[in-house]
Structure formats: structure tokens, C-alpha cells
């Protein structure tokens, strides 16, 4: 029989403070596993000794799957299962302290109490609460001993994602917003929409105690492939029917859009969008997570730890084969123990939600232990060979003749891939280099030994490699060397000035015919539009160095530029009686600056003015100007302001108001776009006081 509905006091404020969940905005109790929380309820008229509590989660709760627990009142909290300890009683109410096990399934629970007061048992529902991972508790698989790291990797809603290229690293802000609005509910519904859940809900829910399992499932769900997941990828350079991936400034809008559309994939994402959304979801659930940027990142499609790039005789980069080298690629690291591999492989684990290659028939990647990657243990679960290649593959550059199908090796490099691996510092807005955590020093014997060990484990050592150069294709020594140097600033709106530097390495004169091209590309180095081409012939005296200035005018590249603002410049040098030499450089252009000022002191629940100033740097009018602003605890949702067109060199000043809702260091993210400049981003730290 159902008893009268008791009234339940969840002690939201006190429990949330104890459980580091105060930042969640709903009125449902959110607690972390392995730690006690207090509940007071009234309306059960009998000795509390006879009370039995029932905590259950998922569609078919059972004790066998650890999704159902029944427990009475005991004198001390249990370290194994669920338990309840009496706190206090009054004539009308009972306060109890409930503890969950350190390895409990996470998710939304229903709590009820059963009493046998009048001889017949009656059950009363006390309500629901959400249970999360607990990085503050030493018994949890996600335990993180450093308080500062827990603050950054679980509680911080602002991040910096690094981009650009290895010669020119830039960073932009991102609003993870894991505690805003109904993001927690959306994260719970992501778990219930995975292929794993659809195939077998009972088993899926019973595995949700394991961060390794959830990390893998969620890396599949954040991309739309296979399962109608959150974000649809697009690397075409045209983004009709959706938003350009560079235009997002936070995960909140993406997750809300996914929910509001009835769970249709949001258009469009590229790697940093997938990584940022996965960061939001995992931090929300309590798994410490950060974004990692790898510069010159290999996408080794055929698993031979080599990537091949092809060029024609004119210097055009050809799209041949599935391998590619991205200027940068962003993935995630999450922190948890690897009970399946042993303690030396615990700690940071690589997860990647960008749909690049299938794993187990689904676009998912990881968790791959970072320590396993560093030691070349590529046979350990999950997806270590792919991640190992991203930071370690060798590069082969080929000349390809489409008429004859003949390919000639121009050069190979073993130190090109996996540079300046970067993440945001703990508690500061700075970049930290973690390359050494992924591999031993480039070019050291240790690093080459690990590479050989990985090749051997993958069975590449003794197998004939069909793409290996044959005897006549073995790299010959070049007679000249070349490089592109940047002269002047790299900014959208300004002319691009480069120098091609050629050096004759021989003691006799050499004649060289140079074919040069410049293409606008995506950050994946995919060529999109030709910007410029030229050719020169030159004779170099013995050991001579010559410089050739190259100017690509703004009005030559402006129409061709992609929103990634990247240009690849290539020179193929055909040396008479010698081997070809390839010179290339990937150039990432900066947007002009935008200035943000907070006018006055930012105080909780008080209005404060913000001014954004932009000066049009080019000698033409810019139109369709839009300013987008967001920031957790500073404003709700996204503020969008239209700005009138700006004449050449004209300055615009835009003011708006914020009403901060919480004290502490908060970040305001600003994104300005117009017809000539896409997504000029900046962020401003705002110190909010009470």
C-alpha cells in the first residue's frame, strides 16, 4: 500500500557544499558517491528501527546489476554498500545520513522508504537525487589528490583551447558551462541515447560505475556518426545549413540546441568543438577532464605509423590517400585509474570524440593510457596505435605524376609530428607544454627505440611494407636547401610578406627551376582555393644563399581565405642534374584585435557596463557586423548585438550591461564577426565581488 506522501527536506545547501555541487543550478539534490548526505522526512509514524530504504536507478533495477539497494538503519556507515545512519528524530520527522559505495553506478536515483508500522508494509517515495563521480574521495576511481586540480578539471567552467600551428600558437576562450541551466539533465540524456543503451539498457546502466566505460561511450555520443549524437562534423570549408565551427564560443548553446531540436545532431563541429563538448559532459558527471592540442597531428588511416603527402610538379598539394597531417588537433584527457591495465597505466587517459577512424565498428576513441603511449605499449586497450601515430608517425613527402602514376620520394621526416602538445595551466590563463608526457625527446635513442618497439608490436617490423620506398626511390642527398621566412606581420587585412631562402650546398654552381603555389586551407591542411602561383629560375653560385621576396596582397587572398585563416605556401625546386627539393610553410593569420573593458566594479546582482571597441583596419567598409557575448555566472545564455557598418579605419564602440550572479574570477567571451573578418575572439577575466 502507498503511504501518505511524506515531505522530504534534502538539505540542498548543506549537502551541496559538502559534495562540491553548489554550482549546479537546479532544485534537485546532486551528490557525489562514496560520501554521506543528509535527508529529513516526515509522515512515517513508527520506530525508525523498522525503516527500510530503497535506492534504485535505471529502467529495471536489480541487486544483481547493482542498480538497486535496500538498506536499514545501522549504527555506522558501511564502507561496502549503501547504508543509513540515524542523525536525529522528533515527534514528526526523522533525519538520516545516507552513504553510497565508492563504486556506485552514477545517474538519477529514486529513493523510497518502507515501513511496517501497522503490520502491513507500506512504501513511500521520498523523491529523486543525482549521484556523480567523486574526485575528492580517495576510494573513487577518479580520485585526484590535488585540490587545485579538482577545482580546474571538474569545477572550472572556462577553458582555453590552443590552435594555430607549431610556428604560431594561438589560444581562444571557451565556456564549458557544465553547471548552467539543464546541462546536467542533458548529460544524463546523452547516456540514455547511446547505441550501448539502446541495445541493452540494463547492462549499459550497470556499467555506469566505470569512468573507463563511460568515457568510451561518451566519446562516441558527442559525434553524430552511428548514433545521432550531439555534433555533426564538417570539414568541407562550406557550412550551409548550420553554424561555422569557428563561430561557437561555448558548449551550452550546442547542448541546448541538440535537446530543443528533439536530439538532432547540431551542425557543425570540428575537432575542438567535439573536445570541448566532451569536456563539458565529463566535468559535469565528475570525471576530471581537460582539452589537449597536438600540433602537426598525424591522421594515420592505414595503421602503418606513417603518413604520406603527395605534391605535383607545380607544387600543388594533392588530396591522395587517406593519411593527413593536421596543423593541430584537439582531444581530451580524463583522469582515472586503469584497473584493467594496472597502476602504472592509471592517471591521464586520452579520449577523442572527433570521428576520424572507427574503433569496434563505431566512431569512438579511447581511453588510451597516456603512459602506455609514451612507452610504446600500443597493444593495450583502447586505440593506442591511432593515438601513438598522432604524436609519433613518420612523414613521407612524395612527388606524384598523375599521367604515369609514378611517385618519387622527395623527403622523409621523423621529427615533424606531435609538437608543442598544449593544455591550459591549472588556475591560470596560460599554456603548459605536455609534449614530454607523450614521448621521449625527439631524436633521442630512447624515442627511436620506443618507435621501433611500437612498430614491432603492430607487426610492421618484418612485414613487407608496400609503401616503403624501393631501392631507386631511397632518398638521395639534395644539392640545395630551402625555407620560407616570414617578413612582417601575419594579420588578416594586411599583405603577406615572405622570403624564399635557397642555399646551394655544393661547391659548384646549380641551376634551379622553382614552381610556387599558395592555397587557402582548412586547419587540417586540406587545400580549398588557389590564391597565387609563380615560377622563377635561378642559378646559385657555389655555396651561395639567395633570398627571393614574395608578396601576396590582401586583395589577392581575401576572397579565397577560409575562416580557419590558414595558407599553405609550397615551392617545388627542380634542380638541374639533381633531386627535387620541397619547401613548404603553413601560415596561420591572426585576426585584428578587439578590446574589452569592464567599466566599474563587478558585484553580485549589480549591473555593470562593458565596452567593446573594434577598429576597422582595412581601407574598405565592413558590413554585417555582429557581436556575440557569453560567460557563465555573468549573463544567461548568449547576448547578440548587431553593429552598424564601419567605414575604412572607423572605430566602433559598443556598450552592454552584465548582472553577475556569483562571486569569484569569471570569464567573459566575446566574438565579433563581419563580412571581411570571421570570428574575432577574445576573453576578459572579470573579478566579481560580493
TrEMBL record:
Biased composition (Basic and acidic residues): 10-23
Enzyme Commission designation: 2.3.2.13
Chain positions covered by the region annotation Disordered: 1-23
Record-listed Ca(2+) binding positions: 392, 394, 442, 447
UniProtKB keywords: Acyltransferase, Calcium, Metal-binding, Transferase
Catalytic reactions on record: L-glutaminyl-[protein] + L-lysyl-[protein] = [protein]-L-lysyl-N(6)-5-L-glutamyl-[protein] + NH4(+)
Active-site residues annotated for this sequence: 271, 329, 352
One Gene Ontology molecular-function label: metal ion binding
Cofactor(s) listed: Ca(2+)
PROSITE patterns, A to Z: TRANSGLUTAMINASES
InterPro entries associated with the record: Ig-like_fold (IPR013783), Ig_E-set (IPR014756), Papain-like_cys_pep_sf (IPR038765), Transglutaminase (IPR050779), Transglutaminase-like (IPR002931), Transglutaminase-like_sf (IPR036985), Transglutaminase_animal (IPR023608), Transglutaminase_AS (IPR013808)
UniProt cofactor note: Binds 1 Ca(2+) ion per subunit.
Transglutaminase-like domain ranges (all copies): 263-355
Signal peptide interval: none
Family to which this protein belongs: Belongs to the transglutaminase superfamily. Transglutaminase family.
Protein's name in the database: protein-glutamine gamma-glutamyltransferase
